[in-house]
Specification:
The protein is an all-alpha fold. It has a single domain, classed as Acyl-CoA Binding Protein (Up-down Bundle), CATH 1.20.80. The chain contains 4 helices and no strands. It has helices spanning about 5-20, 25-40, 50-65, 70-90. The longest helix has 24 residues, at about 70-90. It starts with a helix and ends with a helix.
Length: about 90
Amino acid sequence: MIDEKLHTDFNEAVAYISAYDKPLPADTLLKLYAYYKIANKNFNHPGSKTPLINAFKANALIQAQSIGMEEAMIRYIQLAKTLFEQELGQDDTK
């Protein structure tokens, strides 16, 4: 069973990413997408109306298919922390 702290940290990371208003590289978005879907055990078909976007999302899920729910949460949190730290670093230069 996934511990409560990990669940809380994951939900905070999801909230941070959801509120993030700067553009993110496509590869980062796809990793976040795959980790989120795996962490939530949501393996429904990608819902984009654009076949190419669906293909990229499906590929991201295939690449991450070997990780479990807990690992997906941890990787999502780590990626969100990296983005947060980069943003803080950029703010320090102003």
